[in-house]
Amino acid sequence: MAKILVVTSGKGGVGKTTSSAAIGTGLALRGHKTVIVDFDVGLRNLDLIMGCERRVVYDFVNVIQGDATLTQALIKDKRLENLYVLAASQTRDKDALTLEGVGKVIDELAQNFEFVICDSPAGIEKGAHLAMYFADEAIVVTNPEVSSVRDSDRMLGLLASKSRRAENGDEPIKEHLLLTRYNPERVVKGEMLGVEDVEEILSIRLLGVIPESQAVLKASNQGVPVILDDQSDAGQAYSDAVDRLLGKEVNHRFLDVKKQGFLQRLFGGRE
Ligand SMILES: Nc1ncnc2c1ncn2[C@@H]1O[C@H](COP(=O)(O)OP(=O)(O)O)[C@@H](O)[C@H]1O
Ligand SMILES: [Mg+2]
């Protein structure tokens, strides 16, 4: 059976698309046939981060409206055998995705893939509802800031009440916390919430902590999911998160302020 995973958050700009690309790629790297679906109608970010924007011919809305088959619309990754992307439409019509249409596409994908990753748009409106409705598991992306944590908490309420699983009275959606853009220096200074604070407020299982990192911007500018940069802290943190998602016990890294060497202290450290 395929696993349908939604990558969601209350707030925008917290790292959902970055995380969808990294985690989807990580699952494919480990041999799991994976598709990442961009639900952000009108924006189309995922294909840029995945580096396949020039190969988008048909998109999610075309499939729902019957203008293309899934086979025509799925974009195969050039780097990995098991990885596919379904791009979002650039239409301005936010109603182009319907519950029935999305359900059909998700069910068809579920027959052909091991993991279906739904990259949710921001907010708690229709697009975000459609992205999470069919999910088996949710990765709730949160930044260590009060407003982001508050919005994630609201999203947890929706996951528990407004999903297919909740409506059918099935096992609830399994929730994972992914704390992104974590900056230990700012936590020490009291400018950001610490991991323990966020865990305590949301009380869901911690899937991973992704450090604030220059590598993320560099990777997305190059159209390479940051998890493929295995020298980077963010890439390694995503890699650990994927292992945990697959049930491995892996210690958390990058939680503490980096100890600087003598020369770095003298001349100022680089990221
Ligand atoms: N760990 C990180 N370190 C630094 N910048 C990040 C990190 N994660 C995401 N970003 C940046 O934050 C911005 C929003 O990320 P994105 O994944 O598009 O968020 P969302 O999909 O939630 O709107 C992007 O500019 C991205 O490069
Ligand atoms: Mg996004």
TrEMBL record:
<dbReference type="GO" id="GO:0016887">
    <property type="term" value="F:ATP hydrolysis activity"/>
</dbReference>
<dbReference type="Pfam" id="PF01656">
    <property type="entry name" value="CbiA"/>
</dbReference>
<dbReference type="GO" id="GO:0051782">
    <property type="term" value="P:negative regulation of cell division"/>
</dbReference>
<feature type="binding site">
    <location>
        <begin position="11"/>
        <end position="18"/>
    </location>
    <ligand>
        <name>ATP</name>
    </ligand>
</feature>
<dbReference type="InterPro" id="IPR025501">
    <property type="entry name" value="MinD_FleN"/>
</dbReference>
<feature type="domain" description="CobQ/CobB/MinD/ParA nucleotide binding">
    <location>
        <begin position="5"/>
        <end position="226"/>
    </location>
</feature>
<keyword id="KW-0067">ATP-binding</keyword>
<dbReference type="GO" id="GO:0000917">
    <property type="term" value="P:division septum assembly"/>
</dbReference>
<keyword id="KW-0131">Cell cycle</keyword>
<keyword id="KW-0717">Septation</keyword>
<dbReference type="GO" id="GO:0005829">
    <property type="term" value="C:cytosol"/>
</dbReference>
<keyword id="KW-0547">Nucleotide-binding</keyword>
<keyword id="KW-0132">Cell division</keyword>
<dbReference type="GO" id="GO:0009898">
    <property type="term" value="C:cytoplasmic side of plasma membrane"/>
</dbReference>
<dbReference type="InterPro" id="IPR050625">
    <property type="entry name" value="ParA/MinD_ATPase"/>
</dbReference>
<comment type="similarity">
    <text>Belongs to the ParA family. MinD subfamily.</text>
</comment>
<dbReference type="InterPro" id="IPR002586">
    <property type="entry name" value="CobQ/CobB/MinD/ParA_Nub-bd_dom"/>
</dbReference>
<dbReference type="InterPro" id="IPR010223">
    <property type="entry name" value="MinD"/>
</dbReference>
<protein>
    <recommendedName>
        <fullName>Septum site-determining protein MinD</fullName>
    </recommendedName>
</protein>
<dbReference type="GO" id="GO:0005524">
    <property type="term" value="F:ATP binding"/>
</dbReference>
<comment type="function">
    <text>ATPase required for the correct placement of the division site. Cell division inhibitors MinC and MinD act in concert to form an inhibitor capable of blocking formation of the polar Z ring septums. Rapidly oscillates between the poles of the cell to destabilize FtsZ filaments that have formed before they mature into polar Z rings.</text>
</comment>
<comment type="subunit">
    <text>Interacts with MinC and FtsZ.</text>
</comment>
<dbReference type="InterPro" id="IPR027417">
    <property type="entry name" value="P-loop_NTPase"/>
</dbReference>
